[in-house]
Amino acid sequence: MKFSKMADGLQTSPIILLAAEINEMIQRGEKVYNLTIGDFNPQVFPIPRELEDEIVAAYRAGQTNYPGAVGLPNLREAVSNFIKQYGQLDYPPEQILISCGARPLIYSAYRALVDPGDKVIFPAPSWNNDFYTHLSSGKAVMVETRPENYFMPTPEDLKPHLQDAALLALCSPQNPTGTVFGKEGLEEICDLVLEENRSRGPHRKPLYVVFDQIYWLLTFGETRHYNPVSVRPEMKDYTIFIDGMSKAFAGTGVRVGWGFAPADVLGKMRTIIAHMGAWAPRAEQLASGNYLKNTAAVERYLIQFRSDIQKRLEGFYQGFMALKEKGHRVDAIEPQAAIYLTVQLDLRGRTAPGGKKLNSNAEVHRYILDEAKVGLVPFAHFGASEDSTWYRLSVGTCRLDEAPEIMHNLETALDKLDS
Ligand SMILES: Cc1ncc(COP(=O)(O)O)c(C=O)c1O
Q1: Do 67 and 280 touch, CB atoms closer than 8 A?
Q2: Residues 175/127, Cβ–Cβ less than 8 Å
Q3: Helix, strand, or coil here: 273?
Q4: Is 388 helix (H, G, I), strand (E, B) or coil?
Q5: Best probe residue, ligand 1, of 177, 218, 247 (max atoms within 8 Å of C-beta)
Q6: Of all protein residues, whose CA lies closest to atom 15 belonging to ligand 1?
Q7: For residue range 164-192, what is the model confidence (pLDDT) as tens digits?
Q8: pLDDT given at position 419
Q9: Using a 6 Å cutoff on CB, does residue 174 contact ligand 1?
Q10: Rounded to an integer, what distance in angstroms lies between the CA atom of residue 315 and that of residue 117?
């Protein structure tokens, strides 16, 4: 035994392994359309120009020392105003914690609330909750969601598991599905949490909700974003919000995230983050604070960015619908939010050219990668069952003019399959 049990049991994310495999194919000279990553190609989706200028200016002004444990006052004040203006959420700067992206905030929330063996409930598919649960030695309770509910967990799905749980991890708009909670569904879930906490009384650890809304500014059409506190103000005592610059401003490499939560929970998260040293760089914090206060620039960017993402998602959605209409066993969920489209390739049992039968979803996935040169992430990589025929298609690195080519490749690969 060389390592801790925790480290020995911690798996590398299959999504990272898949991305590495696709990169190898690309390095070998193959043309692969990599729709697997939840990131942006900065050539296609750069960060806002005003933010970039602010970052450069902050470094030039020598803003390179420690940023302080909770984050710079300028940024916390800007976030406080921003979430009030855009989300009607009332949190003073003292209740806002800054970190280097959203991940340390999620990790610190888990570590602040989960004791070894405590139940952590989260939907499958969902992003990384299995790893955070493992890192905090919790007991994962995965709730498999269904296409008819847009792969969002319902009150009925969650209700049987809430008793004695320490944490309920929710994300809306959700990675990997690009779908959101409806108002009523979220209200009912919050009512269940509030009821559970009333039954626990003041001497037991309450059930908390980690609510990851990092994609909340990227909703399309009629889709609306709801959060636990907007639908049930009493949820303020039990909700830890996770948010940041990474997705709404294509700033995955800027590394500025923020969380807001009840003051006592936030205090614990701050101490954990301080010991990790997981602060956001000082220059990026200052720049993000100045940028968020520039409402006109933020508005301009979001309008264009949303429209560019939506065009791509719609294009792929229409493409999948056209294939379905032609009789192919594929499907997709109409885009709602984030940078993801949920698509289905129900091709198990079909025969590939050369007579090889696709016996498993893993073989279907491989066929699509090798034959169509299109990389998608199976929902099984996000904790869904291996039987799941659904995939995440990410448009963050996709040029608009590539979409027809990608759909053509997919159609050609599907046409080659025998029933
Ligand atoms: C739902 C969700 N939360 C958090 C993150 C991580 O954000 P960050 O890059 O700011 O750490 C991601 C990244 O893919 C995500 O999809």
Answers
A1: yes
A2: yes
A3: helix
A4: coil
A5: 247
A6: 175
A7: 999 999 999 999 999 999 999 999 999 99
A8: 74
A9: no
A10: 45
CA-CA distance, 328 to 375, in Å (whole number)? 19
Each residue's pLDDT tens digit, 226-268: 999 999 999 999 999 999 999 999 999 999 999 999 999 999 9
Residue whose tokens read 């229409």: 318
Cα distance between residue 97 and residue 105, in whole Å: 8
- Neighbouring C-alpha atoms within 13 Å toward the C-beta of 127: 24
CA distance 376 to 399: 16
**Residue 157 in contact with residue 175, Cβ under 8 Å?**
no
* CB of 169 closer than 6 angstroms to any ligand 1 atom: no
- Residue whose CA lies nearest to ligand 1 atom number 14: 38
CA of 338 to the centre of ligand 1 (A): 11
Per-residue pLDDT of 209-231, as tens digits, reads: 999 999 999 999 999 999 999 99
Both tokens of 108, joined, read 């610190």
- Please report the domains of the chain, with CATH numbers, ordered by start residue: 5-30+299-415 (3.90.1150.10), 50-294 (3.40.640.10)
Single-letter residue type at 73: P
383: buried, middle or exposed (CB in 10 Å: 19+, 13-18, 0-12)?
buried
What's residue 83's pLDDT? 98
Residue given tokens 């279907």 in the structure block: 364
Instruction: For residue 180, give the nearest of 209, 212, 138, 140 by alpha carbon.
Output: 212
Mutational pocket test of ligand 1: of 110, 127, 216, the residue with most ligand atoms within 8 Å of the beta carbon: 127
Q: Locate tokens 């909340």: which residue?
A: 216
Question: Largest Cα–Cα distance of the chain, in whole Å?
Answer: 66
* Lookup: tokens for 65: 């020392």
- Res 418: pLDDT: 86
Q: How far is the CA of 234 from the centre of ligand 1 (A)?
A: 26
Residue 89 contacts residue 260 (beta carbons within 8 Å):
yes
Strand, helix or coil for residue 392: strand
Quick check: bond before 48 cis, omega within 30?
A: no
> Among positive and negative, which fits the CA dihedral 261, 80, 396, 46?
negative
CA nearest to 85, candidates 307, 336, 298: 298
Q: Is 212 in the pocket of ligand 1 (CB under 6 A)?
A: yes
Question: Is the CB of 244 within 6 Å of ligand 1?
Answer: yes
| Ligand 1 contacts CB of residue 102 (under 6 A) | yes
> 79: which 2 tokens?
């976030």
